[in-house]
Amino acid sequence: MTLLLPLVLVAYIVLYAFALSIPLHLHAVSSLIGGSRGLSGGYAQVQQPLKETLGDWVEREERIALERLLANVAPGGKDLEGVVEGSVVASPSREEPDYFYQWVRDAAITTSTLVDLYADDPSSQLSSSLSTILDAYANLQYTLQHTNNPSGTFSDLSGLGEPKFEIDGAPFVGNWGRPQRDGPALRAITLMAYLRAYNASHPWLWTSDSGEDWFKPLYDPKMPANSIIKADLEYVSHFWNESGFDLWEEVEGLHFFTAMVQMRALREGADLALAFGDDGAAEWYKLQAAYMEAFIPQFWDTQKGHLVETLESKRSGLDCGLLLGSLHGFPAAYANATHTPIYPPHSDEILVSLLALVQDQRTRFPINAAPPSSEDEEEDIVLEGVGLGRYPEDVYDGYGNKHSGGNPWFLCTSSAAEVLFRTAAHVSSTSSLTITDLSLPFYEALLASSSLDVDTGSYGPSDAVFHSVIERLVQTGDEFLSVVKKHAGAEGELSEQFDRNTGYMRGARDLTWSYGAFLQAGRARKATWGLGL
Ligand code: NOJ
Ligand code: NOJ
């Protein structure tokens, strides 16, 4: 470790101190989770107060979501016999649908939420349980990477594109949409965040002998790459321009979500490589990230006036993957960091794409039906919280291949809230709001109920529009969370979907990703507290 460049590391830690400073007020969770029942205990009976505001509910649901999320994670989860330690099971549902597998994507996304919780307060009781899980997750990823599977092998890295494994870590050999190239990028992002968080909480480790044992399995400049993060970065840097299946595992091509997380992995990977004195790799990852920055604008469709999820696809391109790509491609803390944002949640392109998706879903799903508008309102485009599904053409009903039609998904509905909360926080923290020709329809829809006139131009804290926008962003985010609240189960449980006609939950029960997406929306909501609303 003496070889390593302490100065670079200091800069690196300072840079990411931002990434670790997001407040989270889940204090109660540590006692809940770390209490006498331990991680595998029964679900907490969280009393519902008599008069509960949405904010109260969000906090209550955050505790439930974390507990139920952890129930699907080994070690510690409930009823997970046979599940190898370090696994995140997509859902406990073993038939109709059988989601009792570990998907690389779901696992990485879920685990990144656990890393955020760990980073909030590494010395908490919750964090000591989390660090056991995070270490097990990291170890298992090494095994999965080295497991030959239908996508390929480790030796030429092709096997890293395999999307899903059995719960004992064996390869899944059934037919599937493979490869899926977002997995290695998401996993690298999650493990890099863990490496930074752990390094920050164990500042002596980097220069100590035992540090080598901890860091090396995660990142080692040695080639051919055999450390977990480096192998994933090599995969991303060599395969990002090859087609693969989308995050919904259905269509082959080049996808916005995949590209956004790949670009983020390469950018952060370049920073990490530098911290490890791996200068050549840093250059290579940076170069590929630059190519990706030039490539990603192809997802903007000028004619349609919104981003599209897959290039050269017959679909409309409106897709919850656009929101997810923006959220996972651009971490909140990067507002303070060095990378130029590309399609962050507050960008005009993401906001107008969100508006177009909401417009579609609002009329597509009967449960979203807006009250009949009065005549003079008929032409108005309104932005309001509704249940959002994956994409307009979706036919997956959540149970199998009957294809009886798509429905709203909890994780998409929560993600819309997160985009709006993060936009509010961004506008507030930069003290400036610029409304362009492109974003005008979004802001007009957002402020529909307001008597304020909006026009293109720049607004600041001395303008009423500026404050109204922030207020409406938060209110509309809350409307999306109210939809989640309305369709959640009596115990706060979240499945994958809720029925477009009846509103009842359907699809895989206790979907781990539903809980993770909700927790992230909750974090983003907290970052809007105290914005002077
Ligand atoms: C399971 C996949 O994960 C899902 O995305 C897909 O829509 C259904 N199978 C139906 O093909
Ligand atoms: C189906 C979803 O389309 C896909 O994104 C997810 O990875 C699997 N279900 C498992 O949750």
From TrEMBL:
Residues 64-522 form the GH15-like domain. Its EC number is 3.2.1.3. It holds the Pfam family Glyco_hydro_15. GO terms for cellular component: fungal-type vacuole. The keyword Hydrolase applies. GO terms for biological process: polysaccharide catabolic process. Belongs to the glycosyl hydrolase 15 family. It comes from the Eukaryota. The keyword Transcription does not apply. One of its GO terms (molecular function) is glucan 1,4-alpha-glucosidase activity. Keywords: Carbohydrate metabolism, Glycosidase, Hydrolase, Polysaccharide degradation. InterPro entries: 6-hairpin_glycosidase_sf, 6hp_glycosidase-like_sf, GH15-like, Glucoamylase, Glucoamylase_active_site. This is glucan 1,4-alpha-glucosidase. It is an enzyme of class 3 (hydrolase). It catalyses: Hydrolysis of terminal (1->4)-linked alpha-D-glucose residues successively from non-reducing ends of the chains with release of beta-D-glucose.
